[in-house]
Amino acid sequence: MRIDIHSHFLDMDFIRHLEGRPERPTSYQENGAYFVDCAPGLTHGSGPRIVNMDIKLREMELMGIDVSVLSPGMPGPECLNPGAPEEADYWASRINDYLAGLIDAHPGKFLGWGTLGYGDADRTIAEADRCVRELGFKGFQLYSNVGGSVIDEPAFLGVYEHVATLGVPLNIHPTIPLNLVGMDAHGLISGLGYMYDTSLALVRLLGAGVFDRSPSLKLIMPHVGGIVPYLQGRISRRPLTNAKGTLASYLAMVNYDTVTYDLAALEYCFAFAGAERLLYGTDVPFTDAIPAADALVERLDCTEAERELIYHGNAERLLGIEAWSGITT
Known about the structure:
alpha/beta, globular
């Protein structure tokens, strides 16, 4: 049994909406396909692997994945902030409706991470309620910054507190990094920028006291923790600004996905977090080889019981679903 918590789709209506914008991100057509120009050195294509769910289902079958938790690829609607807050909230709702349609069209195969616009706190909280209570989503994708603002801005913290009351996770994911200086060549944005931005987001959230405010908050960090597990000793040398606990105590409350391209990195995260806080993810279609994620987890030096936790047990617990039977609860 395998639940992939890190798998992407695109709502092409939103991508087309970005066409002709006077500032990035903006989309354009080339040879019949759409591309999104996010930043110098960062362009995403809308290939069939992120648009066509029949192709995704075939890839899932090849990898032995029973269910994928879908989230929108970047950029999300929050990128329209701060200039168009109502537009950001409107498109968040539309993308969520589109995702709900994908889930309904393929019973038992997909679950959903909702997306939020953060244009207005009340609208965002209302959309979070709708996503969980009406659309049946199992949590939310939290981009590593909100339209260029750090994610621990006071205006956003109340949203996270409300999500905690809904009992569903926040799943951090990269977006256009806050720092782009020197990253315009050699794939440095995806190779380094994403990892830095998500790591900065995580440490800022912990430093803002999100677990003090909401001890029940479920938080997932992608890519085996970014750079945080490896630098926690250095980061911890100074106390967190607005939190009661230590960085180490909060990191022990965070969950991590297995998306990496190196066995040693997965092994380090396994030693750091333990089997109970690791969740299987592939990052399809943003992965070089379909079997890569699967092969690394299979090579991990752990018990079969621990491997089953990574493959599905932890996801079932965090997402609030019973042992997977092919029926969404």
